[in-house]
Amino acid sequence: MSILIHGVPPSPFVRKVRVFLAEKNVPYELKAQQPFGQSDEYLAISPLGKVPCFQDGDFTVPDSSVICAYVERTNPEPALYPSDPKEYAQALWHEEYADSRLAEVCAGPFFQRIVRPLFFQQEPDEAIVTEIVNEKQPPAFDYLEGVLEDGSEALVGGRFSIADVAAGSMLAQLVHADLDIDANRWPKLAAYRDAIHGRPSFKSCIEEEKAIFASLKK
Ligand SMILES: N[C@@H](CCC(=O)N[C@@H](CS)C(=O)NCC(=O)O)C(=O)O
Q1: Whose CA is nearest to atom 10 of ligand 1?
Q2: Which pLDDT band, with edges at 50, 70 and 90, does 5 fall under?
Q3: Do both 162 and 201 map to the same domain?
Q4: Closest residue (by CA) to atom 19 of ligand 1?
Q5: Single residue among 74, 109, 132 that ends a domain in this structure
Q6: Is there a contact between 65 and 52 (Cβ–Cβ < 8 Å)?
Q7: Stretch 78-103: mean pLDDT
Q8: Using CA atoms, how far apart are residues 197 and 120, in angstroms rounded to an integer?
Q9: Around Cβ 200, how many Cβ atoms within 10 Å?
Q10: Residue 136 region, left (φ>0) first, then alpha (ψ -120 to 50), else beta?
Q11: Least CB-packed of 84, 91, 115, 156 within 10 Å?
C-alpha cells in the first residue's frame, strides 16, 4: 500500500509535506481532507482536526513537522536535516519560525484573497491585507533578509533543508495571494524565494495549485 497524505493542496502545511516527499522522491497519494467539518474517523487519526495527516497502512501520524521528521528517518537520502548539531538546531528553529510567524504574515493575505472568495463566496477584507503587508510583513522579512547570505539559496549552512521546505511553503501563499516581495527592500529574500520556488518540488505544487484556483474562478 502506498503512502497517503490526508489534506488539500492549498494548505501550506500540506504543501510542506508534499515538497519534502518530492525532494526525497517518495511516492504518495493525496487523499482529499478539508481542514474543517472533519469526520470522527479523521479525528481519530488527527486529534487536533488539522491537515496534513500521514498514513502508511495502519500507521498514521499528524502534523507536518512530525511527518517530515519521520520521513527523514524512513528515507534518509537526500538528507534534509543538517547533521551538524548547531545547524540542525537552526534548521528546526527556521521551520518553527515559518510555521508560526511566516504563517501569520503569509497565510493571512491568502485567506482573504483566495479562501474567502473561492471557498466561502465572501469578499476579501483588503484592510486586513494592507495591515499585514504594511505592519506585520516588514519585521518578518527584515529578519529573514538578515539571516540570508548574499546569493544564498538556503537559510541554514548553505544547503537546502527542512528550513527551506517550511519557509518556501509559506512564501508560496504570497504567490497565490498575488503579493510580491519588494526586491529593492529585501533583495536577498526575493532572490531566495525565486530560487527555492524554481525547484521542481515547489514548482509542481505551485503550478497544480494555480490550476485549481483558476478552475474555481471560472
Ligand atoms: N502544526 C500543524 C498545523 C496544521 C494546520 O494548522 N493546518 C490547517 C490548514 S492550513 C488546519 O488544518 N486548520 C484546521 C483547524 O485548525 O482546525 C502542522 O504543522 O501540520
Answers
A1: 11
A2: very high
A3: yes
A4: 64
A5: 74
A6: no
A7: 98
A8: 28
A9: 10
A10: alpha
A11: 84
By the 8 A CB rule, do 55 and 6 touch? yes
**196 C-beta neighbours (distance < 10 Å), count:** 23
* Rg, Å, the chain Cα set: 17
Ligand 1: residue of 36, 50, 99 to mutate (most ligand atoms within 8 A of CB) is: 50
The single residue listed with the C-alpha cell 493542496 is 9
Burial class (CB within 10 angstroms; exposed 0-12, middle 13-18, buried 19+) of 130: exposed
Digit-coded pLDDT (tens) for 116-168 = 999 899 999 999 999 999 999 999 999 999 999 988 899 999 999 999 999 99
Does 80 map to a domain?
A: no
Q: How far away, in angstroms, is 51 Cα from ligand 1 center?
A: 5
Any residues with Cβ below 6 Å from ligand 1, and which?
11-13, 35, 49-52, 63-65, 99
Q: Look at residue 1 in the predicted model and tell me its pLDDT.
A: 56
One domain for residues 11 and 109: no
